[in-house]
Design goal:
Length: about 220
């Protein structure tokens, strides 16, 4: 399993990154602004959020050959290309506000589920280390991943699904000018970073008595 995951981390993004760009480019008939929302947002998110979590907060750590500090340099494309593919597979263009809710729910469930499975496997293989409360309590890899994965990945999926649907509605109504797209893209990316983290921190404070944004020592249950 460890060898397969390590190979996947290099081969999959090399194949999926250009493939998913082309799939979304075709889906949106060459509209690069909509493509940026669907394809680029998960790539940027996977560089910024885990980058902070590893090298700034030091809660996570990757054990891979190509690293920048504690962060694997190609992680944005590992997560981003797979996410873009899953989103493309279930994509139905938004034509109403109801579709925004549907997209949010579908991608929240889909990304939350598959990324939870991936992180459990990565933790068991030693590719990923997470120094959270369940880890400090000596619990297994599934418990460690369940502590954060639904919030980060499910939360991202909800914002991402709603956001790309909103961009589609704006384009269909002829309102998506270049300045509005730039603003909407920044708002989408910021919301995708902030809202899942806020939910995770609030839940961690209730359950563990701390924010969960610092490594937890095995000899200490609070931070």
């Amino acid at each position: 399993m460890s060898r397969a995951l390590r190979i996947y981390a290099y081969v999959a993004p090399a194949v999926l990154a250009p493939l998913t760009f082309l799939l979304w480019y075709r889906e949106y008939a060459g509209d690069l602004e909509l493509v940026a929302g669907a394809w680029l947002v998960p790539v940027l998110w996977a560089y910024i959020v885990p980058g902070i979590g590893t090298n700034v907060l030091k809660v996570w750590e990757f054990d891979t050959r190509l690293r920048l500090g504690r962060f694997r340099v190609h992680h944005g494309f590992v997560f981003g290309s797979a996410t873009a593919l899953l989103a493309w597979l279930v994509h139905v263009p938004a034509t109403s506000a109801f579709d925004l809710v549907r997209n949010a729910l579908v991608l929240s469930a889909l990304l939350g589920f598959w990324n939870l499975l991936y992180d459990v496997a990565a933790l068991r293989a030693g590719i990923l280390r997470v120094y959270n409360q369940p880890w400090a309590d000596g619990r297994d890899e599934a418990a460690v991943a369940l502590d954060y994965a639904p919030w980060f990945f499910g939360g991202f999926g909800a914002v991402y699904g709603c956001g790309i649907g909103a961009l589609e509605l704006l384009r269909a109504q002829g309102l998506l000018t270049t300045p509005l797209f730039a603003l909407a893209f920044v708002v989408l990316l910021a919301a995708a970073m902030a809202l899942p983290v806020a939910g995770y921190v609030a839940r961690s404070r209730r359950r563990h008595g701390h924010s969960g944004t610092r490594p937890v020592e095995k000899t200490c249950r609070s931070a």
